[in-house]
Design the sequence.
């Protein structure tokens, strides 16, 4: 009986859920689509938040950046939870192998002294920057309108703690299995002059009060930091006999390339929106005009200290190049960050 | 040393490693004030003196989280794929089993998603890194649950009715406003109340009732994917339960002034959650063709024994008493599921699931599990008469719209304390308007925060205001996105007819 | 208890009478008939006479139960108090207010 | 009933091949446990305290086992987790700090 059943072909009566058929036509939907599109409620919220009575529980007005159709943005990586944790599990496993290799060959101890100081005094403290990035991204996960953006922000938030832990594990290794290097790094984050610009920047970004503005501010700083610390310095390290710095940096550089994919897609969706695109572009220009110079100043302060430690590093110059590249990629979206407004806010 | 050669000698202990990697990321802001950075953690009146006192017994780090969660999902999706490829849906106990899953998908899945969003809120806005990280993990877990539920049930949606429009229906269908308003209530509260509402009252006190016996039931009824998903989700829930328990202890230990505030939240959210659980009660007792554990037994095992006898004596140390109105819940355990399934039997013409008179064997099981109530209060006055109506060629439906409770939003069906023959009706007047409540518990909740509950989007009232597609039942059902075959009577339903055809057995006579 | 909020928290009821124009919501509860799982909610003109309310609204609903006999002499209550409906009197004049509950039994 | 030494603590575990070693280890290390089988679930209860020891699980499993792996097995619990380190997990009531 059962065997007969199993050979019988039973035609499905529908291919997927109705809201996906209405959006994409009568075709089977991917697991990304089924697990993402439309999950956030949009109507009949019962009560106003006690902590924000002027808004609904989910409300486009939590940001100046608005999409007419929130699902005009989708994650180009198509990440839902299962592939997300699988990908990150591999990232951390691969990082763990790198770190094991460095430790078992005692390579961290053989880092040139300047690079060791660079790592401990200027890179490890960025675990706190990553923690700030987590909080900004978590805020975006809560307040973004629509599941697609919120989901990307939510994973990005967890990524940031992961990045912080990557840095922390490097610190534990540098400390010979103790937390000494981490303690030193924290003291530097709090007091080292080279880092105060960046700390001020993160603290101010965290209280900007508009999740979209906060995310853009974070991304502007990321774009400079990641370009310089994990790409530019990666090459400098290889030439300067600090191969283990390069081996570690590749994991964070790889992460940022992945992060860029969804953030760039979001900027594109914002600026391409048929109804709100022009206003979004204007907001983006204003936010960039306000925050990019601040980010550049803060990261330059940090990189100046790098150039002091490693004289041929050219880190300050790399920041300026990265800032130009940010301006250029915004311009490609039709977002003009005027030099004048840059100077004003600087 | 030689006993564990695979463990590196310099490895930090789990506790030290967790602390270095997670707890120590915090810093005191200098360029903005603490109040600017954490604007939401003072208005509720909760006082926290030392955020570092928060303990997370799981001591999970991000790399371990990814590793184990990826492994869990690998196993789960392998089961889902195998089940779909082998047409496993044909080996369910009955097509009607899926009625429970239709309610689950529309009623519970969107809540998991909401939890994902609001734990993200906590993971930004708590002042301390310990609770922020715990909330962050839970936020990730909750989107996992929403998605794995959808992916688990997606295969059934291809062959069965009632699941196709679960998102729209969560926002619109009359009974869905019960779970929706419950969660909206928690989200609209401050971060500490949310933590007690969802983290403690829901995850710790009640979630076992929702998931453990039910998933065991799924297993017993041939639904391997749901069982696998459910137990896999529960392995996350045990972390969430621990977070909930840690949350309440942390708040109670921080300041004595927190105790009365927390007590009121425990009181409110126990009752709010218990009313939502009423829907699960009827799933356990009526919707599983092969029942495994009655609501009453589950309530005794997972609530009375584990919570009232196990947990609350611990909380007594802090001055916390068992939830106000808990006695009413205990008294109702003999009758809760029967009242709620009867509501669904009355109204399934306007729902995404079907109902029927329980079979003779099923009624015998109910009588055996509820010896003091089922036969006298439910079988004789209700089911026997419903059967007579069917025998005469009819089917009893409630041809109108029910009176809803302003707080829990369930049709006002619940009994007066100590009197199963009389519906409990309570009222409150606020700002010159009359409000109806189903119980002393819901009335207490309303009177505490009437400013909140007057905003309730009550489906029945909205239909009468003309906000739900039109004045007639077909108008409203179209607005709900219902399709032919979604609701009504099981006998002769689309699912039943298909099931019979697929199994080569004659369908039951159409009612 | 004063509600603890950030900012002013005042919202109108989503069920207030004015949303129903000249009408109101009335609950009807057949108290001793367990077939009806709850009282029913109806929208009715405040000026509607009791006789019309009974014939146009109560009787069709109660007839979901085949044993309903409209000519039976029921006892009536309004919000738990004894109540004597006058067929020609309007609901409003009978003292039935928005979202109040009329019950019957016997 | 209020004595934390006798109040029941419990864990519910998925009943499958993977978890058999864990279940057996718990039974061996906790003399007063009672075990109840439901479809797909094993409920293990003990008065006052329940311990899961890494070494005992490893002995039965024949491979390394991290206590973190317990998260793959557990469905629910009653009691406080009073210890969770590299070597053991302890559940008990009355955990004051």
Sequence:
């Amino acid at each position: 009986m059962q065997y007969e059943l199993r050979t019988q072909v039973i035609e499905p009566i529908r291919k997927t859920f109705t809201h996906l058929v209405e959006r994409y036509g009568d075709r089977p939907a991917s697991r990304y689509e089924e697990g993402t599109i439309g999950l956030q409620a949009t109507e009949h919220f019962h009560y106003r938040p006690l902590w924000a009575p002027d808004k609904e529980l989910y409300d486009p007005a939590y940001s100046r950046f608005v999409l007419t159709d929130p699902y005009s943005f989708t994650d180009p990586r198509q990440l839902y939870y299962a592939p997300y944790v699988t990908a990150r599990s591999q990232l951390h496993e691969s990082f763990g192998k790198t770190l094991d290799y460095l430790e078992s060959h005692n390579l961290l101890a053989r880092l040139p002294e300047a690079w060791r100081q660079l790592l401990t005094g200027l890179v490890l403290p960025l675990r706190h920057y990553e923690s700030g990035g987590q909080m900004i991204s978590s805020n975006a996960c809560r307040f973004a309108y629509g599941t697609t953006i919120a989901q990307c922000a939510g994973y990005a938030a967890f990524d940031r703690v992961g990045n912080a832990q990557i840095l922390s594990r490097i610190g534990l290794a540098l400390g010979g299995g103790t937390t000494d290097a981490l303690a030193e790094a924290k003291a530097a984050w709090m007091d080292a002059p080279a880092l105060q610009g960046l700390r001020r920047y993160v603290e101010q970004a965290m209280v900007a009060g508009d999740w979209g503005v906060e995310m853009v501010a974070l991304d502007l700083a990321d774009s400079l930091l990641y370009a310089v610390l994990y790409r530019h310095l990666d090459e400098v390290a290889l030439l300067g006999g600090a191969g283990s710095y390069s081996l570690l940096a590749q994991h964070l550089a790889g992460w940022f390339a992945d992060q860029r994919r969804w953030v760039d897609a979001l900027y594109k969706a914002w600026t391409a929106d048929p109804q709100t695109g022009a206003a979004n572009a204007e907001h983006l220009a204003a936010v960039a005009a306000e925050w990019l110079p601040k980010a550049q100043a803060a990261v330059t302060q940090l990189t100046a200290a790098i150039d002091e430690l490693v004289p041929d590093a050219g880190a300050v110059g790399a920041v300026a190049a990265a800032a130009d590249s940010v301006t250029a990629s915004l311009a490609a979206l039709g977002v003009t960050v005027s030099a004048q407004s840059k100077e004003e806010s600087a | 040393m030689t006993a564990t050669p695979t463990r590196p000698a310099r490895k930090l202990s789990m506790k030290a490693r967790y602390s270095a990697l997670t707890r120590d990321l915090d810093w005191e802001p200098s360029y903005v004030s603490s109040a600017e950075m954490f604007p939401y953690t003072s208005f509720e009146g909760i006082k926290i003196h030392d955020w570092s006192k928060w303990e997370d017994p799981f001591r999970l780090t991000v790399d371990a989280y990814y590793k184990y969660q990826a492994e869990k999902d690998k196993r789960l999706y392998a089961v889902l794929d195998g089940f779909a490829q082998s047409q496993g849906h044909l080996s369910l106990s009955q097509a009607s089993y899926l009625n429970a899953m239709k309610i689950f998908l529309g009623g519970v899945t969107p809540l998991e998603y909401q939890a994902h969003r609001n734990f993200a809120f906590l993971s930004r806005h708590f002042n301390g890194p310990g609770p922020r990280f715990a909330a962050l993990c839970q936020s990730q877990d909750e989107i996992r649950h929403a998605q794995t539920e959808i992916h688990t049930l997606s295969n059934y949606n291809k062959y069965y009715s009632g699941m196709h429009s679960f998102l729209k229906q969560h926002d619109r269908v009359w009974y869905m406003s019960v779970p929706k308003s419950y969660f909206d209530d928690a989200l609209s509260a401050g971060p500490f109340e949310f933590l007690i509402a969802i983290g403690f009252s829901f995850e710790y006190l009640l979630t076992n009732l929702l998931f453990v016996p039910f998933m065991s039931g799924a297993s017993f009824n041939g639904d391997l994917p749901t069982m696998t998903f459910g137990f896999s989700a529960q392995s996350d829930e045990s972390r969430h339960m621990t977070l909930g328990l840690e949350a309440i202890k942390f708040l109670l230990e921080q300041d004595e002034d927190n105790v009365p505030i927390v007590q009121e939240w425990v009181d409110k959210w126990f009752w709010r959650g218990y009313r939502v659980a009423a829907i699960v009660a009827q799933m356990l007792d009526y919707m599983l063709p092969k029942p495994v554990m009655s609501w009453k037994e589950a309530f005794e095992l997972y609530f009375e024994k584990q919570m009232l006898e196990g947990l609350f004596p611990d909380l007594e140390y802090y001055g916390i008493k068992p939830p106000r109105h808990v006695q009413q819940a205990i008294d109702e355990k003999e009758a809760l599921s029967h009242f709620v399934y009867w509501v669904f039997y009355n109204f399934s013409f306007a729902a995404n699931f079907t109902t029927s008179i329980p079979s003779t064997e099923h009624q015998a099981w109910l009588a055996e599990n509820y010896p003091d109530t089922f036969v006298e209060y439910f079988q004789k006055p209700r089911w026997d008469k419903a059967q007579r109506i069917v025998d005469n060629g009819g089917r009893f439906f409630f041809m109108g719209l029910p009176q809803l409770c302003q707080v829990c939003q369930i049709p006002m069906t619940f009994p007066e304390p100590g009197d199963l023959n009389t519906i409990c009706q309570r009222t409150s007047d606020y700002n010159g308007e009359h409000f109806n409540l189903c119980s002393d518990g819901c009335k207490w909740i309303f009177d505490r925060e009437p400013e909140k509950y007057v905003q309730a989007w009550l489906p029945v009232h909205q239909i009468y205001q003309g906000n739900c597609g039109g004045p007639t039942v077909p108008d409203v059902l179209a607005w709900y996105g219902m399709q032919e075959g979604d609701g009504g009577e099981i006998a002769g339903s689309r699912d039943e007819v298909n099931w019979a055809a697929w199994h080569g057995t004659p369908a039951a006579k159409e009612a | 208890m004063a509600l603890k909020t950030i900012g002013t928290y005042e919202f109108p009821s989503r069920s207030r009478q004015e949303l129903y124009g000249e009408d109101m919501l009335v609950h009807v509860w057949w108290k001793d008939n367990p077939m009806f799982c709850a009282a029913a909610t109806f929208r009715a003109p405040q000026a509607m006479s009791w006789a019309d309310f009974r014939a146009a609204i109560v009787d069709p609903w109660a007839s979901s139960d085949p044993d309903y006999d409209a000519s039976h002499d029921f006892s009536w209550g309004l919000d738990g108090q004894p109540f004597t409906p006058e067929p020609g009197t309007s609901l409003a004049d009978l003292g039935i207010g928005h979202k109040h509950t009329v019950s019957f039994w016997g | 009933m209020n004595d934390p030494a006798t109040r029941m603590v419990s864990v519910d575990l998925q009943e499958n091949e993977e978890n058999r070693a864990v279940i057996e280890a718990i039974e061996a290390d906790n003399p007063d446990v009672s075990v109840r089988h439901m479809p797909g679930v094993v409920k293990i209860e003990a008065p006052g305290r329940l311990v899961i020891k890494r070494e005992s699980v490893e002995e039965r499993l024949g491979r390394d086992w991290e206590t973190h792996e317990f998260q793959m097995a557990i469905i629910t619990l009653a009691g406080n987790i009073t210890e969770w380190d590299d070597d053991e997990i302890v559940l008990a009531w009355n955990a004051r700090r």
Remarks:
- Strands of chain C lie at 23-30, 40-45, 75-78, 81-82, 100-105.
- The first strand of chain C starts at residue 23 and ends at 30.
